[in-house]
Amino acid sequence: MTQAQILAPTLPEQTVWAERVSWIDRVPRWVSMLALLIGFLIIWQIVYLIELVSPIILPSPLETIQDLFVVGRNLLTGDYMLMALWITTQEVLLGFVIAVVLGFGLGVLVGETAFGERAVMPYLVAINTMPKVAFAPLFVSWLGFGIASKVALAAFIAFFPVIVGTAAGLHAADQNARMLFKTMGATRWQALVQLKLPIGMPHFFSGLKNAAVLVVVGAVVGEFLGGGKGFGELIRVAAAQLNTPRVFSLIIYLSLLGLATFWVVAWAQRRFVFWHKESVTEETLAQ
Amino acid sequence: MAVLSMAGEAVAPVGLMGRPVYELRGVSKTFARRNVHALDKVDLVLREGTFSSIIGPSGCGKSTLLKIMAGLQPPSSGSVVLEGKPVMGPRRDIGMMFQQATLFPWRTTLENIVLPIEIRDGKAAARAKHDQARQLVDLVGLKGFESVYPNELSGGMAQRAAICRMLITEPAVLLLDEPFSALDELSRDFMNMELQRICLERNATTFLVTHSIAEAVILSDVVYVMSPRPGRFVEAITVDLPRPRTLEMMTDPRFGALVHRIRSHLDKGAFQ
Question: DSSP E strands: which ranges in B105-210?
Answer without folding.
Answer: 173-177, 206-210
